[in-house]
Design goal:
2 domains; 502 residues; three-stranded antiparallel beta sheet; alpha/beta; seven-stranded mixed beta sheet; Rossmann fold; binds S-adenosylmethionine; Arc Repressor Mutant, subunit A
């Protein structure tokens, strides 16, 4: 099995990053693959003829898009094998441990805990069992799955169980520790049990369970009645790192119910957190604007590098730039900061533009700015009006069937020698990696948003809109796809990273 976990154990920083962003996605992926029947419907490698995603979806009675979102991740994790003709089969070690009835029973039991686990905060506060369509000892569950040794049939099975059951439990423990203020308390130094009980409102049993599991995760240690961060946690969660991490956990918490009910989404494309609903989208993105602003500095490095890259082939002086789905404004403002005579139009939903305005003002680029509220699904962006149009992390918001129309409107709005700048998570040509990109795409499916594409898939859609020249340049954490009409000069390599922050 190629599951990327065995080599060297991850550092606490890497683990926290994973628990904050993807551990609950991974648990939901495995739990739903099991409940939908994917594992049972796949032939075992070497035994039966591999089947396509379409055949698999038909066999289990689920949507092709839903099954594909699961399968691409299962292939990337090494649990399912995909051949060059995109035929799918279950790997032998997975087939073996899933055929073990006792192991299967453990998975089924763990599956039922998602909803009650989401009420951990209440369990910590009361110290008691919860009634949630039955009686659930959530604190007891944490004890059992983290602190009791239950043998698994093989190391592969143990790894699978960990991803299946403990991943989401870790995420929710940290969401809860953040919400109750426990992590903030510990970040200021060693604390006595009485002080922690008073500050967090936890019951004794609740606090003890949290501290025991946090200690097991290498985050805290307790001597007598005094608890503190471990040395590694203290270093990792220093300064702004803890508030940043807590924000990531609270973003992940927004997906909890949708992940719990993922089977409904995969079977019937019923979206529990439907970001195509304007009200839900406004609330969600307004909530997330803090988080988007928190990553401003790192994204600004990327956007400045993109602006410098484009300046190598086309002057930015006097350029008209349109930034569609601007969010924090981080992409458009990089063009404004690179060239003081460039004019930038920031397009987004009205509530989000307030945040963009503040950021643009802070960077002293208001004089070059126009703010344009609207709906990117339907907006006519005009004709031959822009030298550069930026689509930064926004195509993944659009359902795949709407991309041709989007590219048509954008191509029309570009001047004849204009350049379209797409900043996206671009998949490899097999669509089975990189892993972080696939998890990001999985959340987009979950929320009825878009899909991630490979470079050649983008190139085909862009060519249909007349933008036949494309290049794909890898930035450090995402990719840049540049597109233009034939004959327009496109950069073939990235400019070096800009030195000092502007
Ligand atoms: C993933 S964020 C990207 C933000 C920013 N471009 C960045 O890279 O940080 C997607 C953006 O698309 C915007 N968006 C989503 N649906 C929209 C709609 N129907 N009309 C206008 N903007 C929309 C959201 O408000 C959000 O700011």
């Amino acid at each position: 099995m190629t599951a990327p976990r065995s080599a060297t154990p991850p550092s606490l920083a890497q683990s926290l990053h994973f628990w904050a962003r993807n551990a609950s996605n991974e648990s939901a992926l495995l739990r739903t693959s099991l409940s939908v029947g994917l594992f049972d419907a796949l032939p075992v490698e070497g035994e039966g003829a591999p089947i396509t995603v379409q055949q698999l979806a038909e066999k289990v009675g689920a949507s092709v898009r839903g099954v594909r979102s699961l399968v691409e991740l299962l292939v990337c994790l090494g649990l399912v094998r995909m051949d060059d003709a995109r035929g799918l089969a279950l790997t032998r070690p997975v087939a073996t441990f899933l055929a073990d009835p006792r192991f299967r029973e453990r998975l089924q039991e763990a599956s039922g805990w998602w909803g009650p686990m989401g009420r951990l905060e209440e369990a910590v506060e009361t110290g008691r069992r919860l009634s949630h369509g039955g009686c659930w000892d959530v604190l007891g569950l944490y004890w059992r799955i983290f602190l009791e040794k239950v043998p698994s049939p093989s190391p592969e099975a143990e790894d699978f169980f960990d991803r299946f059951a403990r991943g989401a439990a870790r995420t929710w423990l940290l969401v809860t520790a953040g919400r109750l203020g426990l992590l903030e308390q510990l970040s200021t130094g060693p604390k006595d049990e009485a002080a922690l009980l008073a500050a967090t409102g936890a019951s004794e049993r609740g606090l003890r369970t949290m501290l025991d599991v946090l200690a097991h995760l290498g985050i805290t240690r307790t001597e007598g009645t005094t608890s503190t961060f471990t040395e590694e946690a203290r270093q990792v969660l220093d300064g702004k790192a803890l508030p940043y991490l807590l924000r990531s956990f609270s973003v992940s918490a927004q997906y909890w119910e949708a992940l719990e009910r993922l089977e409904e989404t995969v079977r019937h494309e019923r979206f529990i957190l439907d970001l195509k609903d304007p009200e839900v989208s406004q609330r969600f993105y307004a909530d997330n604007s803090n988080q988007i602003t928190a990553v401003f500095a790192s994204h600004f490095q990327l956007s400045r590098r993109a602006a410098a890259t484009l300046a190598q082939v086309k002057p930015l002086a006097g350029a008209q730039v349109l930034d569609i789905g601007t969010g924090s404004g981080v992409w458009g403002v990089a063009f404004a900061r690179t060239e003081p005579t460039a004019h930038v139009t920031y397009f987004d939903q009205e509530v989000v533009l307030e945040q963009a305005r503040r950021n643009v003002e802070q960077l002293k680029a208001l004089g070059q700015a126009r703010f344009w509220p609207g709906n990117l699904f339907t907006q006519d962006f005009g004709e031959a009006a822009y030298d550069f149009i930026i689509l930064p992390q926004v195509l993944n918001v659009l359902r795949p069937e709407t991309l041709p129309d989007m590219f048509r409107r954008v191509a029309r709005a570009l001047k004849p020698d204009g350049i379209l700048v797409i900043a996206e998570y671009v998949l490899n040509e097999r669509r089975d990696g990189p892993l972080d990109h696939l998890y990001f795409g999985f959340r987009r499916f979950l929320t009825n948003e878009g899909d991630l594409l490979s470079h050649s898939e983008y190139a085909a859609l862009l060519a249909d809109a007349g933008l036949t020249a494309t290049v794909c340049l890898p930035l450090p954490t995402q990719e840049l796809v540049l597109a233009a009409r034939p004959g327009v000069n496109l950069p073939t390599q990235l400019a070096p990273p800009p030195r000092a922050a502007a």
